[in-house]
Design goal:
The protein has a domain at 144-233: Fusion Protein Consisting Of Minor Coat Protein, Glycine Rich Linker, Tola, And A His Tag, Chain: A, Domain 2. Helix content is 29%, strand content 12%. The chain has helices at 16-36, 45-57, 144-159, 164-169, 197-208; strands spanning 173-181, 187-193, 217-218, 221-222, 225-233. The protein is α+β, with helices and mostly antiparallel strands and 236 residues long. It starts with 15 loop residues before the first helix and ends with a strand. It has a 3-stranded antiparallel β-sheet with strand order 2-1-5, covered by helices on one side. 10% of the residues are buried. Residues 147-236 form the TonB C-terminal domain. Belongs to the TonB family. The chain crosses the membrane at residues 16-35. Keywords: Cell inner membrane, Cell membrane, Membrane, Protein transport, Transmembrane, Transmembrane helix, Transport. It is found in: Cell inner membrane.
């Protein structure tokens, strides 16, 4: 068999290390050049001139204004001085004293009667108000206070509903409530206190069905009138 002859000067393995170093040097040079490469946008002379012309158009034109003429100097009038002759009688005015008269009696605060203004009444209790609120149907009653209380009891009995949930839980007791008949006759400012929220909600529902009333009056002026009443929840 014939063996392939190799020429010593054509062997690439002999200089592979040198070729590797040269290749790495070229690659690093290209990478550095790419990173350091900078470009700038060129601006044409035409764009610059257009910007300058645009700025010149924004400058307002010069205007010449005429100033008004200066005011004329005022004429100074010299007062005429007359010298009185010695024979003229000079009338002197008496100078009144500004000091207080020590003989005049000084009035003390106790001697002056001050009338205290009547207090502004905004709310009066149902038990002491002069004209109680009128429940619908009590307009012709002789005792409107008693009629109001009677109508309230009838309203509670007519609208009373024992909540089923309260019956299942065995809830019972009294719900103390207070509401206010406002100056316009509407019901407002409801306050409740009871053994359970379910019973309080039922009492609130009953009061919400109250009709509009004629407002109470104190000294002929409409005022707010608070009214308190308990609602009893009792299981049979």
């Amino acid at each position: 068999m014939m063996e392939a002859k190799k020429k010593e000067h054509l062997k690439l393995e002999k200089n592979s290390g040198l070729y590797f170093v040269i290749g790495m040097t070229l690659i690093l040079a290209l990478v550095y050049t790419a990173l350091e490469w900078k470009t700038f946008d060129s601006q044409s002379e035409w764009d610059t001139s257009q910007t300058i012309l645009k700025n010149l158009d924004e400058i307002p034109p010069l205007t010449i204004q005429k100033l008004p003429p200066p005011p004329k100097p005022k004429t100074i009038v010299t007062p005429e001085i007359k010298i009185a002759e010695n024979d003229d009688d000079v009338i002197e005015d008496l100078i009144k004293s500004t000091e207080s008269d020590s003989n005049k009696e000084i009035i003390t605060l106790k001697d002056v009667d001050f009338e205290e203004p009547a207090p502004v009444v905004d709310e009066v209790s149902f038990m002491v108000i002069e004209d109680v609120p009128i429940f619908p149907g009590c307009e012709g009653a002789d005792d409107k206070r008693a009629c109001f209380q009677e109508k309230m009891q009838k309203h509670i009995r007519r609208n009373f509903r024992y909540p089923a949930e309260a019956q299942e839980m065995g809830l019972q007791g009294k719900v103390y409530l207070q509401f206010t008949v406002q100056k316009d006759g509407n019901i407002g400012s409801l306050k409740l206190r009871g053994p359970h929220k379910i019973l309080e909600n039922e009492a609130s529902r009953i009061i919400s069905k109250l009709p509009k009333m004629e407002p109470g009056k104190q000294r002929g002026q409409g005022v707010k009138v608070p009214f308190s009443i308990p609602i009893t929840f009792r299981l049979q």
